[in-house]
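ok so for the tutorial part 2 we go from a plain amino acid sequence to predicted structure tokens. step 1 is just haveing the sequence, like this:
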Amino acid sequence: MKVHLSRWVCVDLESNLQRLREEALAAAKTGAEIVVFPELFLTGYTRSLDPQRVRDIFAEVSSAAPEVLFVFGSISEARHNRVAVWSKGHQFAFYDKVHLFHPNGEHEIWDPGQSYVAFEWRDLRIGLMNCNDIRFPEQARALKLEARCDLLVVPAWWPWRRDHIWSTLLQARAAENQLWVLGCCIAGSVEEIEFAGAGNHVFDPAGEPVRTADDRSYELDFNNPPPSIVDPVEQFVEIDCVEIISGD
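step 2 — the prediction. this is what the tokens look like for a chain of 248 residues:
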């Protein structure tokens, strides 16, 4: 399966909306079956956008490429940082970011989501996370153990200076849960907020990086995954408590 992860530079709003149309349809024409955009890619943190206007554009784009699954990074809607998944002109699923990033004041802008989200598409079970969520292994574990996900899609707004942390966390979530992980990060921002973003990273169920020449186009072979070293489902042991032994 061919996947397109955008390397997005956030500029002025109207240019962003035009590029969204152009890049989404160009990726579809190259054969991409999943197209992913990063967190807050249209507005960044400081600008607003009428959710209905952007929904109309999402509908337009996904109608024009009905065989493609679009993960539109995230938008600000109903006081949530919301990842929107669209297909065939309709919203297929959405996920509200649970673990808001307090150093950026996200808790003052949005309310945290109340559930983890996975959905079925074709023969895949896909789980959604958003940026800071990747720091919380229990979320990825729940998406593996309870939802039986095959793939995690993680849009982000993560700084370049900490790309090593971003990539390490994505790799860990892939290896410990034996699933594919797509990390699509903002490349940069020059409008209102000047920001250098981290890279895109894809890992297979063994935690090995999927190589690409351009950090945009990736080939995922779901029919021939790497051999399982440790089965995180079959070998899971549930422990109800932690025993603390006093040193006195």
